[in-house]
Amino acid sequence: MKPNMSSPRKFFVIGNWKMNVTKSRIDNIVKFMTAASLDPNTEAVVGCPSCYLSYARDQLPPQIAVAAQNCYKVESGNFSGEISPAMIHDCGGEWVILGHPERRTIFNEPDHLISEKVAHAQKAGIKVVANVCERKEDRDSQRTEEVLFEQMEYLARSISDWSSVVIAFEALWASNTGILATPAQVQEALAMLRHWLCHNISDKVANTTRIIYAGSVSSNNCQELAKLKDLDGFLVGSSALKPDIVDIINARSSHISRLVDIFSSYEHMSRAI
Prior knowledge:
eight-stranded parallel sheet
């Protein structure tokens, strides 16, 4: 049975700041995001380092939600350097990013640990952006479907409420490599994931779960990608630190951003001060 693609899914854009902000840089990002006219039909979120969660929540307008970039699988304990979903909630965060490719590849987090983290985050009432990724060697060896489905199987074991989960697919070979995935390549992977949900979970989950794309998304390619049938938004990296994020949030609207000019004005004012 094929999913019913007429089911509405709200566009979702999360800008992941990674380890690239300080309070002053957050202030600058807040200025151009606050000055912008953001599409009200897009759910906008920022992924913030844990030490700045409360600060970002206090500075950002209320319609922009805050996400932690990771968490651990239990509420508390002797786990130095970790953060729990309860702590995220206490800092004003609503979301957490789990299974990010950098956690999988740099920090060697296995599927079973990511699954346990997702399960605990759901139990604690934190919404989850659950990541699956494809590496260059996966694509070169034509194992895209195999590796994505294996990651989805682990995630599905831990998800009790699909309505509070967004699935993010990252083409790791197209992230900061100078190589861009074509719209056809992106659509093929997203369709695989929706097909998996349809046949392994339910038609309803396949029709309602948002599936977003990560992989060098910018103001230059976001509008074309936003037209894809199975795409419901973006997980944005470096462009989340620049006014590009406004155009990406507005990718499905006709609004043309003037934020580059606004940002330049703020930069000039800051240097003058």
